[in-house]
Amino acid sequence: MFDRYEGGEEAILVHVDFQQNEEQEEDLAEFEALVISAGVTPLQIITASRKAPSAKYFIGEGKALEIAEAVKQTGASVILFNHSLTSGQERSLEKLCECRVVDRIGLILDIFAQRARTHEGKLQVELAQLRHLSTRLVRGWTHLERQKGGIGLRGPGETQLETDRRLLRDRIALILSRLDKVAKQRDQGRRARVRAQIPQLSLVGYTNAGKSSLFNQLTAASVYAADQLFATLDPTLRRLNIEQVGEIVLADTVGFIRHLPHDLVAAFKATLQETREATLLLHIVDAADERSNENIEAVEHVLSQIEADTLPTLVVMNKIDLLEDFAPRIDRDETGVPIRVWVSAAKALGLELLWQAITECLLKTNVYITLKLPPELIGQWRSYFYTKRVILSEMLDDEGYMTLSLTLTQSQWGSLNKREPRLLACVQEKFTKNGNINEPIE
């Protein structure tokens, strides 16, 4: 069903500039990186400028003839467009050039298909491929009869095109049912972490910003990291312990890119759920990239698509080792809360500052509570608070009462009140980092 090219093939690259600005070179460089990541060797790059796409070829007829001639001279086996093409434009170009044509979306889908390692990742990629392919099933089997009425004109009853569409629908329905089971399994694990009040941090960012390298530095893991686009596809989670915070979960996720195919966003809904449910997002940015601001906007656009744009975010400016005379530092807002950290994952620079900023961000909404426990409650709750790593100090007086200084999230304190209302009567002091709290905390 998939007539896809394989790694090691040689291609003609086509890039069209519609805006007449300086972004063409950067866009083209990113496109070349995508092609190389797919394992394809670029033989020739053909550029063009137009005010609007052509309905038939996307490019002008003269430029299309130039591409056809380049295919004959170079012997290229595929033509790759740095744009999204309609099925009609693909067929017209393939007929003219006598060569397969793949657009930007098809190229990204191919890279994802190569990177998928887990069962869930393979299902998600296949779902995106099938949805993309379903728009290309138009007159693909012209040698077979179509349904007709009248004596001598009756066809086989179902055309091959209709058969393909039915098979696609059945396969998509099967994959969706399997992904639904995987999503339920993820939800179970996620609910367990929520019940245990374990904060989750998700690494997000533009592809090749250094997320996996930073993940490996923070967790001492061995996640595959390479200087290529979409090196990471399947999410990886690790549990860590942070002083003053306790146990957290750190998740490495797939990188984003401009014009990320909608089918991919929909297919990776279960994976991206890890980002949507995060306590804190670590937005990794390649500080050495000249288009870092545009990359940030692209990531924020995808975050808004998956409804994660309102989550607390700490920006991590990575790869400062590629900048001249730049030292690690923390940038803060007017209230002193960290908003940006400058580090280098490759050189392990500024990681202690990153941990400091993460700790402050996780603790800024925490509640600091002093409890004076009577003797009958000490054994149960002192042990419980120690397992949660929330005790800052303790003191036992002569009458057998124990004073505990704790740092808890507001949700932790709220759930404790429901489980043990007597704790509320033991409160001596409640405050946040921003000042005292006089009213009860919900």
From TrEMBL:
GO molecular function: GTP binding; GTPase activity; guanosine tetraphosphate binding; metal ion binding; ribosome binding
Amino acids binding Mg(2+): S212, T232
The keyword Cytoplasm appears for this protein: yes
Residues involved in GTP binding: 205-212, 230-234, 252-255, 318-321
Domain Hflx-type G: from-to ranges: 199-366
GO cellular component: cytoplasm
Statement: the UniProt record of this protein carries the keyword GTP-binding: yes
Pfam families referenced in this protein's UniProt entry, alphabetically: GTP-bdg_M, GTP-bdg_N, MMR_HSR1
InterPro entries: EFG_III/V (IPR035647), G_HFLX_dom (IPR030394), GTP-bd (IPR006073), GTP-bd_M (IPR032305), GTPase_HflX (IPR016496), GTPase_HflX_N (IPR025121), GTPase_HflX_N_sf (IPR042108), P-loop_NTPase (IPR027417)
Keywords: Cytoplasm, GTP-binding, Magnesium, Metal-binding, Nucleotide-binding
Cofactor(s), by name: Mg(2+)
Subunit and partners: Monomer. Associates with the 50S ribosomal subunit.
Function summary: GTPase that associates with the 50S ribosomal subunit and may have a role during protein synthesis or ribosome biogenesis.
Protein's UniProt name: GTPase HflX
Organism: Thorsellia anophelis DSM 18579
Upper classification of the organism: Bacteria, Pseudomonadati, Pseudomonadota, Gammaproteobacteria, Enterobacterales
Name of the gene this protein is made from: hflX
